[in-house]
């Protein structure tokens, strides 16, 4: 039931086009666009800063709906963004995070377990933050089903 749980975190540094360096091929074109030399240009605003921008808009805690649901072993800077946004809104990160964990002796999350948490805790969740593909395991999540069930909790 998992499409890919073998590359995971190693995709950032291995393979023919490591993800950590995926911006490098863009630099020559960007330097032409901005009129700079290749050594002067960087492609910036990676996922972490964009997450902060998005969470500032989409994380709107109200009343008992103040928690953020996310997967265990999320990208470290994703976890920092979650922690930071919770504190920014005046909540305690220990109380405001719901971390989805795989079953014992399993590496990947089961969709049915995610849906069960959504149905059980939905009344307290202000934001569901699950990547389409898990950074650490490479698991492809059933985002359509997860999103549908999350919306049903409103």
From TrEMBL:
<protein>
    <submittedName>
        <fullName>Uncharacterized protein</fullName>
    </submittedName>
</protein>
<dbReference type="InterPro" id="IPR010111">
    <property type="entry name" value="Kynureninase"/>
</dbReference>
<dbReference type="GO" id="GO:0030170">
    <property type="term" value="F:pyridoxal phosphate binding"/>
</dbReference>
<dbReference type="InterPro" id="IPR015421">
    <property type="entry name" value="PyrdxlP-dep_Trfase_major"/>
</dbReference>
<dbReference type="GO" id="GO:0019441">
    <property type="term" value="P:L-tryptophan catabolic process to kynurenine"/>
</dbReference>
<dbReference type="GO" id="GO:0043420">
    <property type="term" value="P:anthranilate metabolic process"/>
</dbReference>
<dbReference type="GO" id="GO:0009435">
    <property type="term" value="P:NAD+ biosynthetic process"/>
</dbReference>
<dbReference type="InterPro" id="IPR015424">
    <property type="entry name" value="PyrdxlP-dep_Trfase"/>
</dbReference>
<dbReference type="GO" id="GO:0030429">
    <property type="term" value="F:kynureninase activity"/>
</dbReference>
<keyword id="KW-0663">Pyridoxal phosphate</keyword>
<dbReference type="GO" id="GO:0005737">
    <property type="term" value="C:cytoplasm"/>
</dbReference>
């Amino acid at each position: 039931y998992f499409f890919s749980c073998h590359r995971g975190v190693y995709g950032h540094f291995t393979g023919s086009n490591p993800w950590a360096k995926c911006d490098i091929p863009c630099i020559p074109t960007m330097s032409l666009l901005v009129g700079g030399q290749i050594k002067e240009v960087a492609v910036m605003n990676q996922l972490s800063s964009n997450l902060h921008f998005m969470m500032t808009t989409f994380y709107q805690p109200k009343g008992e709906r103040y928690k953020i649901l996310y997967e265990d072993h999320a990208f470290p800077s994703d976890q920092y963004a979650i922690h930071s946004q919770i504190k920014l809104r005046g909540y305690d990160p220990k109380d405001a995070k719901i971390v989805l964990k795989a079953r014992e002796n399993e590496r990947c999350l089961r969709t049915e377990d995610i849906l069960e948490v959504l149905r059980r805790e939905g009344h307290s969740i202000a934001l569901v933050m699950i990547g389409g593909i898990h950074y650490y395991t490479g698991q492809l999540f059933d985002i359509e089903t997860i999103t549908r069930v999350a919306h049903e909790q409103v």
